[in-house]
Amino acid sequence: MSATNKQWTLIRRPVGDDVDACLRFEEKPKPVVQPGQMLVRTGYLSLDPANRLWMKDEPSYMPPVPLGGPMYGGIIGTVEASAAEGFAPGDLVTGLGGWAEYHLFTPAEVGRVTPVAGVPLSAWMSVLGATGITAYFGLLEVGKPQAGETLVVSAAAGAVGSIVGQIGKIMGCRVIGIAGGAEKCRYLKTRFGFDEAIDYKNEDVAARLAQLAPPRADGGGGVDMYFENVGGEIGNAVIENIALRGRVMLCGLISQYNARERVQGVDLTKILMRRATIEGFLVLDYFPRAAEAVSALSGWIRSGQLVYDVDVRDGIENTLSVFQSLFAPGGGHTGKLMVRIDPGVA
User: Fold this and answer.
1) What domains are there in the chain, each with its CATH number?
2) Fewest beta carbons within 10 Å, which of 141, 205, 287, 291?
3) pLDDT tens for each residue of 33-44
C-alpha cells in the first residue's frame, strides 16, 4: 500500500481559461482514518463542466473549492480501511471526493454501490449516476414531455445530452440534437437515435431550426422543449424558435464558464411573447429520488431502448489535460468523460 496521496491542488482562482496555472499536481501523505471515518481509494473520477464553477469564489449551490485543498470531483472508490460502523474494506462507495487517489469520508457522505452482473462499474459514474439522474429528472420533471412534441438538446453528444435525447424518443418526442462537427452529428442519429442533428460549427443554428421545426400557425416557433447545456449564441438561437408555451430546462451553460467578463443574457422577448418558461434545476435536488431514476434507466438499458458512452482516460497525472478537453470547441469525446485513478478497477 502506498503511504502517499497524489492529488491536484487548487492554488489560485482561475480567470477565464487559465485553469492550467491554477492547479498543481502534488504528493501528500495518505490521510489517516479517525473514528467514524473510512479511507476510500478512488477508482473512477468524474470530470464535469461544473467543476469549473466550483473553482470560483462566487455564491453557488455549494461552497467553492478552498485554496490549498484538492479539487472537488465525484468519485467511485473502494474502502481501503474503515473505522465507520457498517463499512468494511472492499466495499464500493460513491461520493463527492476530489482529484486525488485517497479520501476520508463519513457514512453520511457516501452512497453504497451494489455491483450488478453485466454492468460495468463506470456505469455508476455515468448513466446510473448523477449523469443519468440529471437527464431523467431534468427532462421528465422539468420538461414534462408529451408524445409528438419537438425536443431540442444542446451539447447533445455529451454525457447528459445523449441520454436526454434518448429519453425524449422513449417518451414519443421528435428529437433534434446540436453538436459540433459532422461526425458527431452523424453519431447522434446512428448511435443515439436522434431524428435530426445540427452542426453548430458549420450551420446557422437558428436558420436550420426554422427549417426542421418551422413556425406554427399560432405564432410560436416549432421547439416545444429545449434542454439547455450550452447558453450563449446557441441558446439564443433555440429560444428564437421556441413554441407557444414552450419549456426551457436550464441544466448548464458551458459556453460561459471560462468567460472573463459577464456574458450578456438571452433576449427574453420571445419568452414573454410566447408565454414560455425557463426553469433551472440541480441534480442535487433529486438525489432523494435517485432509486426511481436508476430503476427506469436500468430497465431501458436492458430493453435496448437506451445506450450510453463512456470515455475513460487513465492516470491521475492526466486529469487536468483531460478536464480541459471538455471546453475544446466540439470536444474530442462523446458521452461521459472520466479518469480511472486505480488501474485495478474494472
Assistant:
1) 4-126+309-340 (3.90.180.10), 130-284 (3.40.50.720)
2) 291
3) 999 999 999 999
